[in-house]
Amino acid sequence: MSRRISQGALVVGSIGVLINIVDAIGSGHLEPHDAFAALVALGAGGELLKERRPSTARALYAVASVLLVVAGSITGRRAWASLWAGGDYDWLDLALGVLVVFYVAVGAGQLLARLSRRASKCRRTVDEFSE
Questions:
Q1: CA distances, 101 to each of 30, 66, 114 (Å)
Q2: Whole-prediction pTM value?
Q3: Residue 61's CB: how many other CB atoms inside 10 A?
Q4: Which pLDDT score is estimated for 53?
């Protein structure tokens, strides 16, 4: 992503976070969809810091991932519960719940693949030393 687009996303995400804070203060409660402006800001911040401070960028990406999973799970769970109970539900919330499940599945698959490669590398190292 270009630097200018990342800067624009950071500005828009930050404005969205401020709007959501004011809305939460006015209404007295937070909604799960209020987290998505913060996701945009965290992702853009991670993208801007990727070259200069890679560890900070990874931390921002990790926080954004956790926020996505938590907010998407809450939103999706509410929508699926309404669907099964026969109440009103939002298709967008249902789709978000499904996408979060896919996101978690892909992340778990990547983690398992990384652990498998690491274990394989350790076995090869042990085999080399035992010969």
A1: 23, 13, 20
A2: 0.71
A3: 17
A4: 92
Q: What is the dihedral of CA 11, 40, 114, 51, to 10 degrees?
A: -10
Report d(CA 72, CA 93) in Å as an integer: 8
Q: What is the pLDDT of residues 2-52, one digit of tens each?
A: 888 888 988 999 999 999 889 888 888 877 778 888 888 998 998 988 889
d(CA 75, CA 92): 9
| Three-class DSSP labels, 54-112 | HHHHHHHHHHHHHHHHHHHHHHHHHHHHHHHHCCCCCHHHHHHHHHHHHHHHHHHHHHH
- CA dihedral for 47, 51, 52, 53, sign (positive or negative): positive
Say whether 120 sits in a helix, a strand or coil. Answer: helix
